[in-house]
Structure formats: structure tokens, C-alpha cells
């Protein structure tokens, strides 16, 4: 039997993840079962279960997919420069806004649902914890580089500085979904004022 190309396998996996993301965003994790995902994907049950044995695996894969994209953007940001905290937070906020607007599914809705699911579901908690530790790690690196450059106090704890930066991004995400009146550009300018960094590009 001819070997299935990796590109075909990756496309099929993405097809399933796209279907699952759409159903989770619309109805939540609890109200969405594997049968719903299978129906939305247009594939057979056997095809879906070949890639994902359970809903928990699907949720974990979606979380890691989104964080992987964000991690790639942060790696580019940190590759040649030392962004000040305000720029790092504003960049992350714009990433959130971009993901939300990319459509047809607002992935930030899935992210918030994943937080709640992680509190009762250990496998999902493990995936969410890995994701947010990765994101916090980028902000910790921003803090360390700014300390080395003399922009932040050398005796401050970089882990907690990074946690504070991440909290600013999470705060934007939550307020955007719950209140709907938070503009990413204006939020970025406010972060610049709060952190006292360099002017935010494009602001």
C-alpha cells in the first residue's frame, strides 16, 4: 500500500482541529462531544479517532496549536532586539486581537473556556499549564534582557515581572470578551504609560 504523504496527514489533522475549534467556540467543551466534532469534520469516526483518541487530546492540541503560533511570533520579536516591557505587552495584545479577528472562529473564546475546563480536567490542565508557562517564559526573558540593559531594576524578580506582563495580556483578553469595549491600540498606549517604556510602534 502506498505511503500516505505527511502533507496529507497534516492537512487531515488540521481539518479535524478546525472542526473541533468551531464546535468548542460555539457550544463550549461540556456541550460538545466527539460525535459533534466528527459530524463537523465531514470525516468518518475512524479517521478522527486515528488522530485524536479523546476530546481531551483535541483540546490539548488546540491549545498547543495557538500557543505554538504565538511562540513563533515572540521568537521573531526577541531574535534581534530587546523590546521594552510596554512593547512586548503591546505586541502580545495585538497578537490576541489578530487571532480573534482572523476568523471564522474567535480562538480567544476557546482559550477562556480552556481555563475553566483545566480546573476540573487534569489532562487539559497539563496542556494549559504548559502553554501559559511558555508564554510567561517569553516575558521573563524580556524582563531579564531589560534588566541587563538597565531599563528595569536589577534586583527585581524577573519571573514576577514576566508574570505581571502576562497578566496585562490576559486582562486584555478577558475584558475584550466580557466587556467588548477595549481597543488593542488604545490598550497598548495605556500599557506604555503604565510601564514607562518606549513609544509603542504604530500607536
UniProtKB/TrEMBL annotation:
DNA-binding region residue numbers: 33-52
Gene Ontology terms, MF aspect: DNA binding
UniProt entry tagged with the keyword Transcription regulation: yes
Pfam family for this entry, one: TetR_N
PROSITE patterns tied to this protein: HTH_TETR_2
Residue stretches making up the HTH tetR-type domain: 10-70
Residues spanning the signal sequence: none
Keyword annotations from UniProtKB, A to Z: DNA-binding, Repressor, Transcription, Transcription regulation
Name of protein: Transcriptional regulator, TetR family
Organism of origin: Geodermatophilus saharensis
Organism placement in taxonomy: Bacteria, Bacillati, Actinomycetota, Actinomycetes, Geodermatophilales
Amino acid at each position: 500500500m502506498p505511503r500516505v504523504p505527511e502533507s496529507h496527514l497534516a492537512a487531515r489533522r488540521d481539518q479535524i482541529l478546525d472542526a473541533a475549534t468551531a464546535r468548542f467556540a460555539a457550544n463550549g467543551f461540556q456541550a460538545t462531544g466527539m460525535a459533534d466534532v466528527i459530524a463537523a469534520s465531514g470525516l468518518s469516526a475512524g479517521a478522527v479517532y486515528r488522530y485524536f483518541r479523546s476530546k481531551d487530546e483535541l483540546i490539548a492540541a488546540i491549545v498547543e496549536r495557538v500557543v505554538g503560533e504565538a511562540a513563533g511570533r515572540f521568537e521573531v520579536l526577541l531574535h534581534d532586539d530587546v523590546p521594552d516591557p510596554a512593547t512586548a505587552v503591546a505586541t502580545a495584545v495585538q497578537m490576541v486581537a489578530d487571532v480573534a479577528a482572523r476568523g471564522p472562529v474567535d480562538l480567544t473564546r476557546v482559550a477562556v473556556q480552556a481555563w475553566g475546563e483545566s480546573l476540573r480536567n487534569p489532562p487539559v490542565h497539563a496542556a494549559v499549564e504548559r502553554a501559559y508557562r511558555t508564554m510567561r517564559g517569553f516575558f521573563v526573558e524580556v524582563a531579564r534582557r531589560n534588566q541587563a540593559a538597565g531599563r528595569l531594576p536589577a534586583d527585581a524578580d524577573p519571573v514576577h515581572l514576566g508574570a505581571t506582563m502576562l497578566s496585562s495580556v490576559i486582562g486584555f483578553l478577558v475584558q475584550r470578551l466580557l466587556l467588548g469595549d477595549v481597543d488593542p491600540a488604545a490598550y497598548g498606549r495605556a500599557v506604555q504609560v503604565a510601564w514607562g517604556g518606549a513609544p509603542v510602534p504604530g500607536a
